[in-house]
Design goal:
Helix content of chain A: 55-70%
Distance between the termini of chain B: 70 Å
Radius of gyration of chain B: 22 Å
Oligomer: heterodimer
Number of strands of chain B: 7
Distance between the termini of chain A: 40 Å
Order of helices and strands of chain A: HHHHHHEHHHHHHHH
Largest interface: A-B, 75 and 68 residues
Order of helices and strands of chain B: HEEEHHEEHEE
Strand content of chain B: 25-35%
Structural class of chain A: mainly alpha
Helix content of chain B: 25-40%
Number of helices of chain B: 4
Structural class of chain B: alpha+beta
Shape of chain A: globular
Largest sheet of chain A: none
Shape of chain B: extended
């Protein structure tokens, strides 16, 4: 028995090593990624749940297994106002590398707390990947370089990053497996895609971009599209095991999948773009070579990042103190925010895909 | 001993964190945990009969203050700041104004479980909600006495994309006085 367990342990270790190789992101590049991650949040995806403070208590209907169920209603508005001010400051700390590990954990915790109440209107949104990535990266060395107050390096920097990839593959698998059970019926008279589409189009105003074209799309094309989506979703682990190029190819297909969903279903998932880039960003490592890895962000040319991030944070703070703003910079209400994110998705995914393709084979920096 | 099997233990922990929430969601959507690594599945299909798909469209209506006729409200504007994708759930709960609504937990492999919701919503909270809805009706140029939730059946021709509104209309009038 002992022998069997030892063998199983070795097997798991070998598989984990292989997955780690597919997802390698050295500390210097992880630190560069941290800056992009922070700027992405500051520009396009800064959680803003102040609106919960303005809605009636009778809307409170949390899922059974939610943190919010520990409460009897929405907390006072002041709590959300306070969280709304803390969040940009924590994002700034992450961007500039100020005690990144603790800032990341604090941001994740606050996000889960406030979003639990956001999802207490009866529906859980499934945009957890970005926040799961944040939590995982907190335990890596992404705060050890290009930082104003660097973290102490951890011994196993790579495993938390690999866990992001495992979480991504699993999340997609979880979606694909359920779809496969109902959508794969080889029957052109049924459609899973169209149920998504009509529900969004007719009930929640998802009628932008190419959505009108769906009415003219032949059933056969939709059926093929459904099977392609399921195949993509359930095969993440296989590509993760196949090696770095395979994993990157899967991510490129994933990016095309999100672009298509944005265009036709008006479901954007722009937040996934920054996470996918984590597995390509090592490709820019060679351009960073001349940079001293221990450079402080206060030295040229990085001090510009400090001013830019601080400026963005200041704008968020001013907007939030004035009880305005949304998750996107300069956007004031939720409808406009959603439309902005839709167009952002269309503007963002193509260059992301091109960047991914151009860097598919780029070697990582040792 | 634990050191010898550290990879297996790690695998067990990661699997538990990932698989248990997913298993619960598979059992019943009502048992979905947050936070958990679960992506949207939408694993249901729509059938078409004789080349037509049938759907239900939710609409919000008020009574126009000047013409006294029904006026369709812009759902996004009306709900603002609540994101519009919560609309169907708010409508199902009648904005929390109906204390008699029971929730049903649908299990995939067992009989559904009807549960009377524990609700801490008081009459004061309901009055606050009525005020909230009234203010929105006024802003939309409507009387602030009633809000009408209308579910209209419509069908879409699969080949031509033609949309046909059927006469089956289900209406629920929420009195705000």
């Amino acid at each position: 028995m002992k022998k069997l367990f030892r063998y199983a342990d070795q097997l798991v270790a070998a598989v984990w090593e292989r997955v780690k190789n597919s997802t390698t992101l050295p500390p210097l590049e992880a630190s560069v990624f941290r800056i992009f991650f922070g700027l992405f949040l500051l520009l396009f995806s800064m959680p803003n749940y102040a609106w919960i403070g303005d809605i009636p208590q009778s809307f409170f209907d949390p899922p059974i297994l939610s943190l919010a169920n520990l409460f009897t209603g929405f907390p006072p508005k002041a709590i959300f106002f306070f969280c709304n001010l803390i969040i940009p400051l924590l994002v700034l700390c992450i961007t500039l590398g100020v005690k990144t590990r603790w800032s990341s954990i604090a941001l994740f915790t606050i996000y889960v707390f406030v979003s639990s109440f956001g999802y207490s209107l009866g529906k859980i949104d499934h945009n957890i990947l970005l926040w799961f990535a944040l939590l995982c990266f907190a335990f890596s060395n992404w705060g050890t370089h290009l930082a104003l107050a660097p973290d102490k390096p951890v011994k196993d920097h790579q495993s938390p990053i690999t866990l992001v990839a495992v979480g991504l593959a699993f999340g997609m698998f979880s979606a694909g497996l359920e779809k496969a059970r109902y959508w794969v019926d080889f029957d052109l008279e049924t459609s899973g895609f169209l149920l998504w589409f009509y529900a969004g189009y007719f009930n929640i105003d998802r009628n932008l971009l190419l959505s009108d074209q769906v009415f003219q799309t032949p059933s056969l094309i939709l059926e093929i599209g459904e099977y392609a989506a399921i195949t993509f979703e359930i095969t993440g682990f296989l590509f993760l095991l196949s090696g770095r190029i395979g994993w990157r190819c899967w991510l490129i297909v994933g990016s095309c999948f999100h672009l298509t969903n944005s265009l036709y279903l008006n479901i954007h998932f722009t937040e996934h773009a920054i996470v996918y880039l984590a597995f390509f960003i090592c490709a820019i490592g060679k351009n960073l070579k001349p940079v001293d890895p221990d450079s402080s962000l206060l030295k040229r040319p990085y001090y510009l990042v400090v001013f830019f991030a601080a400026g963005l944070t200041l704008i968020h703070m001013i907007e939030r103190i004035a009880d305005q703003g949304s998750s996107c910079l300069f956007i004031q209400d939720l409808t406009a925010e959603w439309i902005t994110k839709m167009y952002l998705a269309v503007a963002l995914w193509p260059p992301v895909i091109i960047y991914q393709i151009l860097n598919l084979r780029n070697p990582r920096i040792k | 001993m634990f050191k010898d099997y550290r990879h297996l233990i790690r695998l067990g922990i990661v699997s538990t964190i990932l698989v248990v929430p997913y298993g619960l969601k598979l059992l019943s959507k009502s048992l979905e945990i947050y936070p958990a690594i679960i992506f949207p599945a939408g694993a249901v299909t729509l059938e078409h009969k004789d080349g037509w798909h049938q759907m239900v469209q939710h609409g919000l209506f008020g009574v126009d203050v000047s013409t006294k006729k029904l006026k369709q409200l812009d759902k996004g504007k009306f709900l603002n700041p609540v994101p519009i994708h919560y609309l169907s759930l708010l409508l199902f709960n009648e904005f929390g104004l109906n204390p008699d609504i029971e929730s049903t937990i649908y299990f995939r492999y067992f009989k559904p479980l009807r549960v009377k919701k524990f609700s801490s919503v008081t009459e004061t909270d309901r009055e606050e909600t009525r005020d909230w809805l009234r203010n929105r009706l006024i802003a939309a140029g409507c009387d602030d006495e009633v809000l009408i939730i209308r579910k209209t059946e419509l069908r879409i021709n699969r080949d031509s994309g033609e949309i046909e509104y059927l006469e089956n209309i289900h209406e629920k009038t929420i009195s705000l006085r």
